[in-house]
Design goal:
The complex is a heterodimer of chains A (240) and B (238). Chain A has 240 residues and is an alpha/beta fold. Chain A contains eleven helices and ten strands. In chain A, α1 packs parallel to α3 and α6 packs antiparallel against α11. Classes of the chains: A alpha/beta (240), B alpha/beta (238). Chain B: Pfam families: ECH_1.
């Protein structure tokens, strides 16, 4: 399902196995509990999270076969992913997605919900597939898209042509931060970046708060905020 | 005035005649009803291409018609501004990809009309984009500024478009990210690339309803102003 490794001050969360890493309730719970584990570590005021995956897929999105068999499960998966993304956004440390394979729809949203997106050049694409498979895109997905893709033309290309965005194209469009030769090199680069960030020594709690304000609109859609900008559901134990 | 023609999957909305294609209550009504017709006749794989004849795509509202009413000029301007809003809404709501093939100049509401399409192609050699309001001394209606903000990404580009009074030629418009391309040296060339894009989009056989929903969800502020819903549970999760 997913594994969590601690390497010095780095946390590496990996979606394990050769499958499509479809975001079904079980995997979402598994990822969430890994994040909870990360939060519980003492030294997490100066850490970095790297999220990556085994195999051909980063994540191919929601488990659509599951939601076909039981429509209430699509509501459940959506709710769990919303919570997970809100959790990632309030995480008191920088986050890096080392995209080592295809990231589609909800899987693409998961990747883009990280502060940095590093991707392999030789394989895989970012793909908001909804137009191709006739799925309505939830409003909160669009909030992530608007926060992470700056150019209106790029947003149009991603959402209204269902573009299969390779790493190099993603770099051009400003979605991907850097491109690397292979899956292993991408993870290596993520580790290197993570270590550089840690060396800068910024306080993770301050970082997390700043990120929340930067992507506030996404939080509005995922967990709801009141006018004071504080959420009713406080996920992180803030030091401030 | 304007015509709607269907050739295979492609709808062609053409502003006919060699005049400035100014928007006047009658033209606004015509365009609106043709868009409604395209919507009702749409199928999977439909695409709209909008173009014009002559030197102008559209030079904006019919100010002469407004001024001819003397003291009633302001009332007539308000009328045109108000009745034009549903045209923009209809384009954003249209269940098919839309392409503006600019044969010539697009100014003020004519430019807004162009930018309301998903893709905008203009000529390299001729034709300018011109938000004339700052020069004429007219305020820009809120839904028009909202459209510029939605479609034009950088503050520099928005300033050049709305505040500078500049007449932007193709190359500059592309550099500012306002149009998709300005590579053709003729009106026919612009239509040709539009048709080419149109055919490749048509071949996807997308559901128009899903397409329109995703398009609207790209521009939530603008859609709120135009009373359009994206039908994607666009309420905050409180």
């Amino acid at each position: 399902m997913c594994s969590l490794e601690k390497r010095g001050r780095l946390f590496i969360l990996k979606l394990t196995g050769d499958g499509e890493h479809r975001l079904n309730p079980t995997l979402l719970d598994s990822i969430r509990s890994a994040i909870n584990q990360i939060r519980s570590y003492q030294s997490s005021s100066n850490s970095v999270l790297i999220t990556t995956a085994d195999g051909k897929f980063f994540s191919n999105g929601y488990d659509l076969a599951l939601s076909k068999s039981d429509p209430s499960l699509s509501v459940l998966m959506d709710a769990k992913l919303r919570s997970l993304i809100a959790d990632l956004i309030s995480l008191p440390m920088p986050t890096i997605a080392a995209v080592t394979g295809h990231a589609s729809a909800a899987g693409c949203i998961l990747a883009m919900s990280h502060d940095y997106v590093l991707m392999r050049r030789d394989r895989g694409f970012l793909y908001m597939s909804e137009l191709d498979i006739e799925l309505i895109v939830p409003a909160w997905f669009m909030a992530v898209i608007r926060m992470k893709i700056g150019s209106p033309a790029a947003r149009r290309d991603v959402m209204l042509t269902a573009a299969k965005v390779t790493a190099v194209k993603g770099l051009e469009m400003g979605i991907v931060d850097s491109v690397h030769g292979s899956a292993a090199e991408t993870v290596e680069a993520a580790v290197k970046l993570g270590e550089e960030i840690i060396t800068r020594g910024a306080d993770g709690h301050v970082y997390g708060k700043m990120r929340e304000t930067l992507v506030r609109e996404v939080l509005l859609y995922t967990i709801g905020l009141d006018e004071n900008g504080s959420s009713g559901v406080r996920i992180s134990g803030s030091k401030l | 005035m304007c015509t709607l023609e269907k050739r295979g999957d492609l709808f062609f909305l053409t502003l006919t005649g060699e005049d400035e294609h100014r928007f006047h209550p009658d033209t606004i009504d015509s365009v609106l009803s043709l868009l409604e017709q395209a919507k009702s006749e749409s199928t999977k794989g439909s695409v709209l291409i909008t173009t014009g004849h002559g030197k102008f795509f559209s030079n904006g509202f019919d100010l002469a018609w407004a001024q001819s009413a003397g003291s009633g000029a302001i009332e007539r301007m308000h009328q045109m501004v108000k009745s034009f809003k549903p045209v923009i809404a209809a384009l954003l709501d249209l269940p098919m990809p839309t392409i503006a093939a600019l044969n010539g100049h697009a100014a003020a509401s004519g430019l807004i009309f162009a930018l309301s399409h998903d893709y905008v192609f203009m000529r390299k050699d001729r034709g300018v984009l011109y938000m004339s309001e700052v020069d004429i001394g007219l305020p820009v209606p809120d839904y028009m500024s909202a459209l510029v903000v939605a479609k034009v990404g950088t503050s520099i580009a928005r300033r050049e478009l709305l505040l500078s009074g500049k007449k932007l030629r193709g190359e500059e418009a592309v550099a500012l990210g306002i149009v998709d391309s300005a590579a053709q040296d003729s009106a026919e060339g612009v239509v040709e690339v539009s048709v080419s894009l149109g055919e490749s989009l048509a071949a996807k056989k997308w559901s128009g309803e899903v397409y329109a929903s995703i398009r609207k969800s790209l521009y939530p502020e603008l859609c709120r102003m135009l009373n359009l819903t994206a039908n994607n549970l666009a309420t905050h999760n409180v």
